[in-house]
Design brief:
By secondary structure, the chain is mainly alpha-helical. The chain has a domain of 170 residues: MetI-like fold, CATH 1.10.3720. The protein is 76% helix and 0% strand. It contains eleven helices and no strands. It starts with 6 loop residues before the first helix and ends with a helix.
Length: 301
Amino acid sequence: MTLLSTPRSTTKDVAIALQTSKASTRKERLFQLFLLFSTLVGLVILVVLLVDIVVDGFSSLDLGFFTDYTSRRPEDTGIRAGLTGTLSLMVLVALIAFPIGVGSAIYLESFAPRTWFTRFMQLNITNLAGVPSVVYGLLAAALFAYILNFGRTLITGALALVLLILPVIIVAGKESIKAVPPSIYQGAIALGATPWQAVYKQVLPVAMPGILTGTILALSRAIGEAAPILVAGAVFSRRADSEPWNLTEPFAALPVQIFDFVKRPQEAFQVEVAAAGILVMLFVLLLMNSAAIVLRNRYSK
């Protein structure tokens, strides 16, 4: 027997629905307020830290701080060796990690057979993105410095950072390629393009903004890592520049040099000089992120 709705039952159902909607709206507002509060707490902490670093380190920023090497006196010390070492590391890491990471992402997403072994590799790559950075430093020191006999040199430090960021670049590349509408690839195949031509000429340009963003974020992580390059052979102080083409030379880096400043007994090193080094590293990081925004906007057009 079919029950017909009466005006009374319909009104009751509407009232219940309105009460449920009001309760849901109240919960949503409370959750939004919680998210806003959490965001404000993080921003306040970040602003306090930045202001403290600027107040402590701005007075030490002058031309000599960029052009001088490390000294025993805080007023005469500089970060030239660490700055050139960090820039050299970033050049080498980008040149090595970007083609390998993007190539791996293209293969895994577009050409690899859908077998259990492929899924096993993808799962392990995803898990490797969360491995502590010091583990990659120990691996690089054992494999490149001692087994392959590269020594504790610039190329060993660069390869340690490459191992660190490769999983991040591969995962970002895979997700960017997966986000491309399948119709672009299918349309290219329908017009007679080979699978490689369809991926290279059509899919990859559309996915490039996301790939570049993931790559720059990975490099931004690498630029501040001290543990892997310290284990791989970075020196605390060096009175010589580092160049990307001198692969077998010792090297310094900004994170390691800042760590060296903090552990020195003089208070000026621990506060003013270390804060100035942090400001320089933040400036380099902002430049890299700005380059990512420019490249992403260029490829998005």
